Amino acid sequence: MPGTCGVWKTTDVTDADLGLVVGGYNADGAQKVETSRQPNNLWTVTATFPPCGSDADTTLVRTMALSDTTTHLAVAQSSIGMDCAADCTSRAAAIAASNAKVVGRYYRWPTSKYKSLTHAEAAALSKAGLSILSLWEWASDAIENFSFNDGVDQGTSAVNQALKAHQPPGTPIYFAVDFDASSSDVSGRIADYFKGVQHAIDSLKAGYVVGVYGSGRTCAWLLAHGGASRTWLADARKWAGYDTFTEWHVRQGHNDLNIAGLKPGAKGDYDSDEVKANAGFFSGVV
């Protein structure tokens, strides 16, 4: 951002959308990037920009996957999370007591038997000290349910529900592809679906980020081709790409938690997750 005055700071140095200025300049044109470790194992990065009107070139790094401390950058430790199909309003305290930090909750088609994330639930989770990740899932287990028009319709519904839940802009909604999609599935109908989702988000000017939940192959292709910028690797270890896809932001199936009143696992009430710092969770909903 040449010509910008002032100092830029972040504690989320792994956020690929914000980027990190690693070639900053001070008023004299000298490079100046300062870092300091914080107690929560994140880094504060201070980059001084050139004076307004300068043409000095700065480098925006789009992907941060650095953990070597010699680079003066570090990825924050992952958090333990869980995702649940049921309303967690009354379970917020029990979830927090289990040492989970992040709760994944769903937006769904209005006719679903499951309750979608609401403002009241998001506020209850926030009050309990929990952060939230949002997912969209509706008839996501068969290729015939994926098309551009499906993406537009479902993206529109997801955005409207996210706005009502007070999900802040700039955070992702993860859209589920809940089957072992073939390469042609992913590059064809699924790619079209995610184009439809993006079209809906852009049309509504909501500012949400597109994420994907699915197999390693699905996540890898959409990430590489711009269909999604956040990835949630499903705990389906026989699906294509599970063992080789390492660029996930959330990985399902971390460790089962002891949450009072809830049973873990695919046939239970929730799945556990490992959640990276740049997964896009939000909190502070009141």
Secondary-structure element order, N to C = EEEEEEHEHEHEHEHEEE
Which class do the helix and strand fractions yield? alpha/beta
What is the general shape? Answer: globular
Q: Please outline the major beta sheet.
A: 8 strands, mixed, barrel
Per DSSP E runs of 2 or more residues, the count of β-strands stands at: 13
The average pLDDT is: 80
Domain count, please report it: 2
CATH homology group of the largest domain? Glycosidases
Domain Rv2525c-like glycoside hydrolase-like: 94-250
Pfam families: Rv2525c_GlyHyd-like
InterPro entries: GH (IPR017853), Rv2525c-like_Glyco_Hydro-like (IPR015020)
Description:
The chain is α/β, with parallel strands linked by helices and 286 residues long. It folds into two domains: 1-77, no CATH class; 79-275, Alpha-Beta Barrel (TIM Barrel). Helices cover 22% and strands 21% of the residues. It contains five helices and 13 strands. It has helices at residues 92-97, 119-127, 148-164, 183-204, 216-224; strands spanning 7-10, 20-21, 33-37, 43-48, 60-61, 79-84, 102-107, 131-136, 172-176, 209-214, 230-233, 250-252, 270-275. Helix 3 (148-164) packs across helix 4 (183-204).
Topology:
Blueprint (H helix, E strand, L loop, with lengths): L6 E4 L9 E2 L11 E5 L5 E6 L11 E2 L17 E6 L7 H6 L4 E6 L11 H9 L3 E6 L11 H17 L7 E5 L6 H22 L4 E6 L1 H9 L5 E4 L16 E3 L17 E6 L11
Parallel strand pairs: 6-7, 7-8, 8-9, 9-10, 10-11, 11-12
Antiparallel strand pairs: 1-4, 2-5, 3-4, 6-13, 12-13
